[in-house]
Write a structure and sequence with these properties.
It contains two helices and six strands; from the N terminus they run βαββαβββ. The protein is an alpha+beta fold.
Length: about 110
């Protein structure tokens, strides 16, 4: 059992500080991080919180999963470690999909 939590469904207004404050009632918060989109600088809608004990993790899950934070219903559960062979979702590049023929000036 780990001490790192996944928090999903976050508002774009949620900050590291407000995330920390929401979990501080359950134990010492080692880290609270809202994941930001590198292109837009906005929240991606999820984050991670690390607490100092398994008891704090279980209490936070029991009380905060399904609760409201910054106007949004959040999901709280134990974070899953990425497997070493996981490479993320498939490359991100575009495929050249220039189908056949046709008049390119037509919509």
């Amino acid at each position: 059992m780990g001490t790192k939590l996944f928090v999903g469904g976050l508002s774009w207004d949620t900050t590291d500080e407000s995330l920390n404050a929401a979990f501080a009632a359950f134990g010492r918060v080692v880290e609270a991080k809202v994941i930001m989109d590198r292109d837009t600088g906005r929240s991606r809608g999820f984050g991670f919180v690390t607490l100092d004990s398994n008891e704090a993790v279980q209490a936070a899950i029991a009380k905060l999963d399904g609760s409201t934070l910054d106007g949004r219903s959040i999901r709280v559960n134990e974070a899953q470690e990425r497997s070493s062979d996981s490479r993320g979702g498939g490359g991100g590049g575009r495929r050249d999909s220039r189908g056949g023929g046709g008049d390119r000036n037509r919509w």
